[in-house]
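User: Continuing from earlier, I have the next pair ready.

Assistant: Great, send them over.

User: Here they are, in order.

Assistant: Folding the first of the pair now:
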Amino acid sequence: MKRHVGSRSLLLLAALAALLVAVQPSLVNAQAKDVHAQNVPPLRHNPPPKPQQAMSAKPAEVMNAWTVGLAGGLLEGAPIRLAAEMARVVDDGDNLHVLPVVTRGPTENVNSLLYLHGIDLAIINSDSLDEYKRQIPDIQRKITYVLNLFPSELHILVRPEIQSLGDLAGKKVNFNTQGTAAAYSGPLIFSRLGLDVEKTFVPHQVALEQMRKGEGGMAAVVFVTSKPVDAFVRGRFEPGFKFLPVPYDRRLEDYYLPATLDAADYPNLIKQGERVDTIAVPTALVAFNWQATSNRHDRVARFVEHLFSRLDKLQGPAFDPKWRAINLAAPVPGLARFSAAQAWLDEHPHGSQASQ
């Protein structure tokens, strides 16, 4: 019995040895092929990764790879609303994700763009750069513009006895509450025009009521916002209340643009066929001037491509009417255009005309 078992064992071992001899050459050949493959240069266009490869990436890496931070503004303001609408339209899953950020307002968003981690883009008033000239002499090299979003027209509403800008000297003028565009841009513009007034910073509703009643010596209110302003459209004013014209000259050319107010904007304050010359502060979408070889630059470039190519969606009825007046090619005084935005316009010479 033991001899039979031993014979069977020997036969089994012999069979296994023969099988290994037969299989081993194929294993050697396979290894040789793998070594050869490692020495072959990669293809010029690699195939897309398999789903299981993409799934192996860490969630944090996937989420952050193409996320762009956009500093908008105050929760109740137009800039944060436009930022949210841009985020909706350019969203492309893991390929592009825009985070609109509520901030202290467009006049302070330059700080966010320069110093706040994760912020690649910001909506600012163009003249807010004036505050940084002394601290950062080359500020206009650090920031580039993507898009001139909309103009914020200067409105100077005065009482009947005020006939010109010069009449405001020494008078009480309200510039709305601190943190608003009027509170920053208004005094800056008055300073450039050489107007020395008694500045107040109370809510415009309070100042308008004082003007109507002739109380507190309030001579004028200054709004810096897109026309038409609801307070002027719906308000009822005694004869003589009016907007003062503001001349556009070399003192204002660096940050401002010429603008007008007319009867179509304010039929209660401007007669049919008349117009009031004023200036406008461009509200612009700007980007930090990232190095062209950086990932941050690539993120903003992808954002620009998505935004510009999908502008027609933003000009639809579901979005803010301001989008319908946007001209992609419109400049922003004092700033150079972001390189990817200029490249897109060069490649689509007629693309900017669709929004005019």
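And the other member of the pair:
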Amino acid sequence: MSMAGNLRKVTSLGKVSGLRRVARLARRRPRVDLSHPARSPLGSAVVNCVTYKDGARIPGGRDLVDAVKEVRKHDDGFVWLGLHEPTEREFAGIAELFELHPLAVEDAVHAHQRPKVERYDETLFAVFKTVCYVEHTELTATSEVVDTGEIMVFVGHDFVITVRHGRHGSLGPLREALEADPEQLAKGPAAVLHAIADHVVDEYLTVADAVHGDIDQVETDVFAENGARADPGRIYQLKRELLELKRAVAPLGRPLLDLASRPMRVIDPEIQAYFRDVSDHLLRVTEQIAAFDELLNSILQAHLAQVTVAQNEDMRKITAWAAVVAVPTMVCGVYGMNFDHMPELHWRYGYELIIGVISVACLALYRGFRRNGWL
């Protein structure tokens, strides 16, 4: 029996009786493989649905309800269901089947949650913020540098449900990597949760390194010869994007520590050691982001200081030229007065003398200002 045909109905019905009717309908539907890495051809939110036993993927399609019953009957293996931005109607039947807490279901459907880990009876609910570096040819005051999304994970004794929000953060490559390591996958749903956490934190490291390159470019431009003319909007934009990255990274510290140290029924103590390693990587990213923020503050202060120095230099030049121009202005102003008795007013060489005096005085002032670096 195809797991796909029934699963589509599971996402639209909220009662077990409805699931049984769907199982009967599924017998008349053609088989559709939901394990394909692309989005489900059924047009629902289902991306992937696979059953694992002893770290190996069970081939072929099977009714979802029967697969869960089989796993729980033999207490062996688990079901991994992947969803992308499901609606409340699509998720209602799944929540009913796996007995998920309504509060966790609401968070998973509506997204925009802080990174966290919560326990609901026998189920663990974790929220991770995913990040992606947005490539750009040139950083501007409006460039998008960091794009964020979310991954919600429901972990039970015999199931893993991942709900992804956003345009990135696909778990297809992660699933393939886990399937290539049956020994790790055989450790159960907790191993999947660790792999997701490790994958998310590794993306943090990748994005942090890429942002570091943008910061280096801004720093080079600011301390260039014409650094005072650099656009400060680029620095502010980087600070805003860095804040977006910080909001994704910083709140995850406490949940990872809980996963690494606090006893949890669905987390095997052997897996907790792996979470400690992920927590160390997260600490490294957090320290990097703090250092980047301080560096951007220093770059911004340096840029403002450069602007102030450039303005002071401009004012000194203006003042120096005003002093040079003041000499002929004063002399011409004096001899422009209409007095009958003024020195050298009617002398034949008075004009040449005054022009000479003005020229010598202006030249002396110019050389003095040049020698002192004002011009």
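Worth noting for the second one:
Confidence is low (pLDDT under 50) at residues 1-43. Strands lie at 46-53, 56-57, 78-84, 116-120, 123-133, 146-155, 159-165.
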